[in-house]
Amino acid sequence: MTGLPEDIVKVLVHQQYFVHGNHSAVKLCTYTKKSLKREAVCYKQRFYGIESHRCLQMTPAVAWCTHRCQFCWRSESWAMGNEMNNVKIDDPEDIVLGLVFGQRKLLSGFGGHPKVPREKWEEALYPKHVAISLAGEPTLYPRLGELIQEFHDYGMTTFLVTNGSRPDVLETLDPLPTQLYVTVPAPDEITFKKTVRPFDTKNGWKRLMATLDLLPSLNTRKVIRLTLVKGLNMHSPDKYSELFLRSGAHFLEAKGFSSVGSAHAHLGFDRMPSYEEIMSFSEQIIGGTELKIIDSTPIGTVSLMAKEDFPWRRKLVFPKAKKELPPPYSRVK
Fold first, then answer.
1. pLDDT in tens, 289-308
2. Type and span of the H or E element at 4
3. Which of 81, 210, 221, 321 is deepest in the core (most CB within 10 A)?
4. What distance, in Å, lies between the first and last C-alpha atoms of the chain?
């Protein structure tokens, strides 16, 4: 059993990832850096109350994924295939402490930055929110529930992003994350196969539909996210609204594709919807339904739709901390 090959690690490090153990990584989000410099914050802070400067963006499966999405900017997301069978699986607490250390190391250069308030930087060294996304498909990590529990034990909220290919994992996941994101990359099966190029070409769409049907039974905050690419999956708005209503999720995000990273090689800037185009498409999605646009922002080129604007969407309930993070720059064995 092995971990990541050295050549993949070199690529990830070059892309400013901090790689820990056999299969996990953390990377500073653009908006974490912008928030520290008081330039901008992520739309998730506006929509859901996440403090951008205290968010840790990580993955427990950096190079394993069930999809090979055309719009994915992470070049190594599926380099090792769609299963983690031949990987030595790391302990959840080791992953948490290792990636907090990695985040702190990546933040070290901001400590003396003239635009960064010292107090804000010191807060960032103690993350309060974890985005379990970044690269790969996190539901492939077999100890995901234990990982979420570890983050909760350190008093952090968790935001799990999945492509919906593993409904069997979500069905038994314990505990559930603070917020569950499911990406719906297409309005129909033909577009789905073209857009995400799933390893499971026969059952990929069925697995996504099974995930949507499972969502009403999961007692947590739920979001359906659309990543929209002009000329690829930005069509049939009525079918997107049908899929969202089928899921029973609380919120629907329509987000414009960004032509960056690996995606830029085959999807250029002309495939990026403008903010105005996203808003127009969102209007088409809600047309004739009980949905409404409850928020939007040009930052991230995204709109937020729902049946109602829940008063608690910006208020996060933090898990009760049972453990304390070590002081900054304490080394992990």
1. 999 999 999 988 999 999 99
2. none
3. 221
4. 21
